[in-house]
What does this fold into?
Amino acid sequence: MVEIINYLGIHLAQLVQISPLAARGLIKLAIKDELGPYFQFDKIKFQELKLTISNSLKIRIQKLKNIETDKVIKKLEEELIENQSLITMSKV
It folds into this structure.
């Protein structure tokens, strides 16, 4: 599952003009916000990640200045759906 977080982190970094490392950090912090501080990233399911993007990550991105949050969230959700196989493959 870490692969999809890395993948989304790269896309988020490009969308909001931050480093990929910082973008992955935002995603991981949002997962912890949404699913609890002890949640293991490798256990996340598609629906949980989708929920995290539309809720907690959206809140974190809104705190960044001059970012069109709704467009960023929509793009990340599209990337997640298009690359759903990364999640499926990591579960096998």
